[in-house]
Design a protein that fits this description.
Blueprint: E1 28-31, E2 34-36, E3 42-44, E4 51-53, E5 59-61, E6 64-69, E7 72-75
Antiparallel strand pairs: 1-6, 2-5, 3-4, 6-7
C-alpha cells in the first residue's frame, strides 16, 4: 500500500457509468461507501475530516481495501 492516508488516484463513490479512471493490476484502493437514511447530500466539518449529512439523518460509513490483480481483485480487509 502507500505511505500516506490518502493518495492518488482518487476514486469517488459516484459517477457516470463507463467513466472515470481505469483500475490496473497492482493498484490498491479503499472502497468507502457512506449509506444515509435521508438525502445523499453531505458536508465536511471545520476539522476537514468529519463528514455529516446535511439533513441531519443517520449515516454509516465503512471501508474495504481492495487489490487489483491480474486475475481480478482481492479484498484485503476482513469479512
Amino acid at each position: 500500500m502507500g505511505h500516506e492516508l490518502h493518495e492518488d488516484p482518487d476514486v469517488p463513490n459516484y459517477g457516470k457509468y463507463n467513466s472515470g479512471i481505469i483500475l490496473k493490476t497492482g493498484m490498491v484502493i479503499a472502497v468507502e461507501p457512506m449509506l444515509t437514511a435521508g438525502k445523499r447530500y453531505v458536508a465536511i466539518l471545520d476539522d476537514d475530516w468529519t463528514i455529516v449529512t446535511e439533513d441531519g439523518s443517520p449515516a454509516a460509513h465503512y471501508e474495504h481495501t481492495v487489490a487489483i490483480r491480474d486475475d481480478g481483485y482481492e479484498i484485503l480487509t476482513g469479512e
